Amino acid sequence: MTKKITHQLLIIFLFVQNFLFGWVYPEHRDIALLAVKNLDSKNRELLNNLWAEARKGNEHRLTYDVIEPYQFRDPSHLDFASWPAISADHSCSAKNMLDVVLNSNWILEVADIAAKLKIDLKQYGTKDARITDNALRDADILLQRADPEYATRAGTNNVHFLLSLKEVSVEEIQYGHQCIKEGVELNAIGAYAWFHYSALLKIGKLTTENLSQEERSSLVLSALADEAFALHFLEDVFAAGHVAGTWGNASQRKGTHDYYNKSGLRTSTWEGENIILTGDAYMREEDAIRAALAVKLSLEQFINASEGKTQNLFNQNKIGLFSPDSFNVCKINYMPYRDFDNNYFFLLEKIISQTPIPGLVSGIGELPRFKAELGFFAGIAPSSHGSLISGGFGENQETLGVIGGLEASIRLGLGLDGVLNESGDGLIYLSVGWREDGSSSTGVVEIPGIEKYGSLLSAIPGRSAYSARLRLPFYLIPGDLLILGPILFFTSPNTIANMAVVAANGGLIPWHSGIATSVGRFQFVLGREIGVYLYGRNKARDALFLIGGDYGEAVVSYRSTQLEFPFLEFRPTRSFATNQSSTLLFQFYGGIDFPHNISVLETTGIIEKPKMDNIWFWGLRMTFDWRHYF
């Protein structure tokens, strides 16, 4: 069992720790829409003409015009503005993206989900972060189902991020060279430069090669795919969380990414303009305008190349004309070698000058870093609880009562909170501790005057127990990942990885994801956690009075095992420091307490072993959950 759990923890952690995007689908598309709209009339016409050539033979999937500004729910066609949104988040290369656009059916479902998300974000704006988080939660769950590789696709590298600065005295052209240098960490500017270069090389051949109409269409289609894939990363560099930098462990990267995307970041462009940026799901109009300026300039370079205006800049002739670039950004961590023409940097510098200056790496002048609740932790969880019980253990004790107590435990676990967004819950832990219960409010028998004896004649006298709690996410039914994990880990690792991501975000049961409200966060958790309490396991077993039945009056000793199943959580507060978190948590639960190992100590009756009934209960626990992350 330990080996199974270890495998499962590694699968989940390795595949979801870097789930960090810049903009959500409708924001990517809106930036591209704005850039195309802002082209002057001549360039807009030229781009439309290129689109018309690319569309030949693909009319079944591509819109008539290059952009369709008012694309509604349930689209049947995709415009060029949707391509950057599909790139990198829903595909791994320009070639893969074009295949997805033209040949897959699920991408239309993705576009429909994105259209719904845009409506929700426009309706609520960014005024209420809780409502935005809920809308994003719903969209992410649906996107993961439509595109099973949605989360794991982004979990391999930092290609969506700007490369952090090593020193202040760096010019944009130097920074551009650093970003594409062989062996440097894969990054957004490096990916943009790669695919934009491929697009320019291809489209530049349009006026120099003797091509048939079919070849022209194929060439333009491939070049547009390369450019769209490049634009995704150019748009990403305007998301605040991607400017702050990527150094640190997974928890720091995700925490910093999420904080700045939501809270905003003041920075400046390479050309010296002071700007404030936000990030995914929080894009303002000014953010879209800022990013669209750089996208527009990139498209103008692409259009100029289609007219042969840049053919003298590039000397390379060896390039596949009729197929988009197959460089897979999901499978490598470092920039590969490419022989960029020196003249290309003249064009690249113009683009980079409009982008934000990234944050410094660790050291003097670095931006404040934040941590997400992601990674292995140890913690403590003192709690108090109260339960409504169905009666006592005696077969004639059926009067409802209450019982309460205190508990203290230590925990070891893995935090995966907010894998897709802050509404997720991939929390995994095992805790052990000690519990002290008071006496029940019900007496041994319900007769007048017994209350004057206080707890001496309670149906359940005060007792103590060893406690253990296990919490695990599940895909469809509790424990399914423990069973399937070790099997699929070897036979189909991608399948179990995708299942783990879904489980960490609430599973296939939609109401298992967190719901943010003005008073706190609610979440249904039935099946995700179980508590086990072992009573009467110390030196002396528990004892109680039983009165009635064939045994008359008896004093019995016993042990009992209590199973507890939480079903609803409410978290009004939550705080996170550099390496620790604290949470006040209210948990509603139900369960059963069944007695066993019963023996008679004293009796006035004739039955040696009286019967004891199970007790059903409902309760509320208040827990202070403190964790230290490693």
Secondary-structure blueprint:
Layout: H1 2-16, H2 25-37, H3 41-55, H4 82-86, H5 94-103, H6 106-124, H7 129-146, H8 172-180, H9 188-203, H10 213-236, H11 240-243, H12 250-263, E1 265-268, E2 274-277, H13 285-306, H14 344-352, E3 374-380, E4 383-389, E5 401-416, E6 428-437, E7 463-471, H15 480-491, H16 493-504, E8 515-517, E9 520-524, E10 529-535, E11 542-547, E12 553-576, E13 580-603, E14 615-629
Antiparallel strand pairs: 1-2, 3-5, 3-14, 4-5, 4-14, 5-6, 6-7, 7-10, 8-9, 9-12, 10-12, 11-12, 12-13, 13-14
Strand count, sense and barrel status of the largest sheet are: 12 strands, antiparallel
Percent in helix? 25-40%
The domain count comes to 2
Shape: elongated
* Percentage of β-strand residues: 15-25%
Q: What Rg is obtained from the alpha carbons, in whole angstroms?
A: 31 Å
The total count of strands amounts to 14
List the uncertain runs: 1-18
How many helical stretches?
A: 16
**Structural class of the helices, strands and pairings?**
alpha+beta
| Element order: H for helix, E for strand | HHHHHHHHHHHHEEHHEEEEEHHEEEEEEE
Please state the average pLDDT score: 85
End-to-end separation in angstroms reads 24 Å
